[in-house]
Amino acid sequence: MIEKRKPIKVEQALKRVFDYARYGSIEYVSIEDSYGRYLGEDLVATHDVPFFNRSPYDGYAIRACDTVNASRDHPIEFKVIGEIGAGSVFDGVVGEHEAVRIMTGAQIPDGADCVIMLELVTEIGQHMIEIKRKVKQGENISFIGEDTKKGTVLAPKGTYVNPGDVALLATFGYKQVPVSSKPKIGIIATGSELLDVDQPLEPGKIRNSNTYMIMAQVKRAGGEPIYFGQFEDDFQTCFEQVKNTLEQVDFLITTGGVSVGDYDYLPEIYEKLGADVLFNKIAMRPGSVTTVAVKDEKLLFGLSGNPSACYVGCELFVKPIIRKFLHNRNPVLKRAQAVLGQDFPKANPFDRFVRSYLNFDGSQLYVYPVGLDKSNIVSSLAGANVLLVLPGGTRGFKKGMKVDVLLLEDQEGAPLDTFLAGFKNLNRGDSDEVI
Amino acid sequence: MIEKRKPIKVEQALKRVFDYARYGSIEYVSIEDSYGRYLGEDLVATHDVPFFNRSPYDGYAIRACDTVNASRDHPIEFKVIGEIGAGSVFDGVVGEHEAVRIMTGAQIPDGADCVIMLELVTEIGQHMIEIKRKVKQGENISFIGEDTKKGTVLAPKGTYVNPGDVALLATFGYKQVPVSSKPKIGIIATGSELLDVDQPLEPGKIRNSNTYMIMAQVKRAGGEPIYFGQFEDDFQTCFEQVKNTLEQVDFLITTGGVSVGDYDYLPEIYEKLGADVLFNKIAMRPGSVTTVAVKDEKLLFGLSGNPSACYVGCELFVKPIIRKFLHNRNPVLKRAQAVLGQDFPKANPFDRFVRSYLNFDGSQLYVYPVGLDKSNIVSSLAGANVLLVLPGGTRGFKKGMKVDVLLLEDQEGAPLDTFLAGFKNLNRGDSDEVI
C-alpha cells in the first residue's frame, strides 16, 4: 500500500515553517572578521560627520568679509600666517587679510569662515597671496553633521555586512562588532546507497554529494553547518541519532528517507519522537516529498535525497529560516522577472523550480534552464544562478514569455510578504486549489 | 608649483595593470572548506554517471520480450524473485516471466533490460504481479555515462566554487580539492589625520575606515588582506616600510599619499624604490589620482585617501588582478545595462563611476545613485550594489536614459576583452582623446 499524501502549496508550506522561526543572540567579532556577518544591533553614527568644520579642498582659509571688493581688476592681498596639514590643528586665529594654507580634510581654523581653492589663488611672494574673486561666507566648508548626524541609524540590525558597512563600522569606532550568532544546522544523511567522498565506488552505490552541497548552501545563507554522519541501518539507532543531534543544534536537516518507500525511516522517526509534521508533501517539482516537522519548537527539515530536489528544498525553506535567525529583514529569495529563453513545453500540475541561468542582454533579463531538469542529475546544479518558477497548471511555456526567477547568489533577499505576494500573482493554470 | 599629470583612460590603465598579472599556485583544502574558493585545476568527471545502469523510478526490473503480448485485455503474470534496495545488488539473473522489485537509483539486475513503474503494476498475490502493457527494451533505465562521460571537464580551473560545484566535487571523490592559493595583499594606510578604529576622536582627525573597507573588498574578491599599519611621519621610515612590505606580499595597496600635496610621500617613494610608474592620473571620478607602479614585477596600487575614490579604485583595478591571480576567466566587473532612475545633470570631462543601487522593476533594470557622490562621504558606500558608469563629456544625463552599470556583488565577472569593449561602446561626449 502506498500512503496517500495531500500536497500543500509552496507558499503555505513556507508560512507554516516561519511560525517556528528562532532568533540568534549577539556575539562580538573584531572588525576585521565582520565582513559577511549579519549585524546583531543597529549600526549607529556615534558622532556627527564631519566631527568638525573641515575643508573639502586644498586651499586657503580666510574671512569672507575681506573678499567683498575682490575682482579680476581689483585683486586683494592676503598674508599667509600658517598652514594646516590634514590631522593637525591651527592654534592661532585668522584675522583681517590673513590666510591659512589648508589641506583637504583639515579643520577650519578659528576666525576663518570660508575656503578659497588653491587653483583660484596666485602666490605673489613668500607668504603672500592674491585673490581675484569674492568668496561667500561658508563657501567650501563641510560643516559639522552635514553628512551624518550623531544617532542616525545607518544600517539596521540584521544587515549583511558588506565592505561599505565595514567602512561605516570603522568610522564610528566599532573595533568589536555586534553580530548575530550563526544558527547551528545539523545535517544527517540517509540512504544505504551512499558512500562517503573518500570511498572507492562500488556497484550499486554513489557518493554522498548532498551533504557537502548543503553544507555550502548553509554557509552561503549565513549558517554554520555541522555534519553528524550517515544513518545506520537499524531503526532504533537512527531514532537515537536524530534525537541526540536535535539537542545539539538549532535546526536539523536530513537528506533522503522521506518518501514512502520501504527504506524510508523518517516518517516513523517523526512519529516516535512525537514531532508535529507540518507537511509531508508540497505541490512542487522537484522536491514534492520535502517534509518539515517540529519537535520542542525546533524545526526538522526532511529534504529529498535527490540532489536537485535537495538543493531546491534547502533554498526555499532552510535559507529563509537561517536569514530570519540572523534578524535579516529580507530573509527570502529575491524575485525578478525575465524573458524565457527557450521553450519548456511539458506542463505539470505542480509549480516547478527549474535550475536556470539568468543572463543580461542589453537591459533585458533572459533566463535559460541549465541542462535537463531531472532530479537525479547533479551536473546541472553547478551552472545555475536562479530558480526559474514555472507555475503549475495544464500549459507548457514558450520562449519569449515573461517568467519569474528567484535569485540564488544575491545577498539582498526579499521580505516574506513580498515573496508570498509573488505567488499570488503567479498565473497558475489551475484554480486556487492544488489538485 | 603643482605638478601637471597627464590622465589616461580607465581602459588603458586597466590594460597596463594586466601586463603585470601574477598567478597563484595550487593548494589543497578539504571539501568542507572548498566553498567560495577558486578551482586550482579543472574539475573532471572521474567516472561515468551513472556508474552502472540504474533505475530512475521505483518499479520492477523485467525482460522486455516477456511483455510483447501484454495489454489491458491480456495481462501477463510475472513471478517476483527478489528485491533490490538502493545501494544493494541483486545476485541472481532475471529469467523468463520473472521480475525483481527495484528502488529508485538501484542497479538493474542481470537479465533484465527494462523497468516498469510501480504504479503500472498490479500485485495479484504474494510474489506475483500482473502487467497490462508492453514495455520497450531499455525503457526506464538510466544507462552508464548517460548523464556525464568519464573525463568530461565539468568546471574549468579558476571557477568560483559554489554549492553545485561542491556537489560535483563530492560525486567525483575530491576529498581534497585543488584550489588556487590566495594572493597576499599588503595594505599600508597613509595620512597623519588618521586615528585607528579604537582611538577616541580628536579635533582635526578622523578614524581610518579605508583600511578595513579594503580588507573586506579584498576578501570579497578572493584575496587575503594583510594590514601593515600606518605610515610614520618620517620619509625614510615610510620608504623602508614600503620596501619591506613589498617583499612579503604579492601585491601592495597604499591608501592616500598619491596626490601632489605637501604631505604626499608616495611619488617620491616610487622614485627612490626605482619603481616604474604605469600611470598617476586616470580620467575618472572619483579616484583620478589613482596610481599604479611596478617594482620587480610586483604591482603597487596607490589608491586615493578618499573613501569612495579608494573603493572605486579597488574594484576597478585590484579586484580584477586578484581574480586573475586565482586563474578566473572572468576577472573583471560584469557590466549590465539599466535605465537611469533620476537626473544627473552635471557633466564632467572624466568618466564617472557613481556608487548606485540597481533595482528590478518588472523585467527592467533601474539604477539610482545612492546619496551624494562626494568622494568624502562614507555613508553612501553601504547601499551601493553597482557602479553607475557615466561617460565623460559635455552632457549631463536624464532620467530614463540607458546607462551602463558594473555589478559589485556578482561572483560571475566578465572577461577583460568584454570589459574593454564596453568602454569602446560608451557614448563619450568628447572625441577619442581625453582632454
Automatic annotation (TrEMBL), chains A, B:
SUPFAM superfamilies listed in its UniProt record: MoeA C-terminal domain-like (SSF63867), MoeA N-terminal region -like (SSF63882), Molybdenum cofactor biosynthesis proteins (SSF53218)
InterPro entries linked to this entry: MoaB/Mog-like_dom_sf, MoaB/Mog_dom, MoeA-like, MoeA_C_domain_IV, MoeA_C_domain_IV_sf, MoeA_linker/N, MoeA_linker/N_sf
Gene3D superfamilies linked: MoaB/Mog-like domain, MoeA, C-terminal, domain IV, Molybdopterin biosynthesis moea protein, domain 2, Molybdopterin biosynthesis moea protein, domain 3
Source species, domain of life: Bacteria
Keywords associated with the record: Magnesium, Metal-binding, Molybdenum, Molybdenum cofactor biosynthesis, Transferase
Cofactor(s) listed in the protein's UniProt record: Mg(2+)
This enzyme's EC code(s): 2.10.1.1
Domain MoaB/Mog residues, every copy: 186-324
Catalytic activity: adenylyl-molybdopterin + molybdate = Mo-molybdopterin + AMP + H(+)
Pathway assigned to this chain's UniProt record: Cofactor biosynthesis; molybdopterin biosynthesis
Role, per record: Catalyzes the insertion of molybdate into adenylated molybdopterin with the concomitant release of AMP.
Family: Belongs to the MoeA family.
Protein name: Molybdopterin molybdenumtransferase
Source organism of the structure: Pallidibacillus thermolactis
UniProt lineage: Bacteria, Bacillati, Bacillota, Bacilli, Bacillales
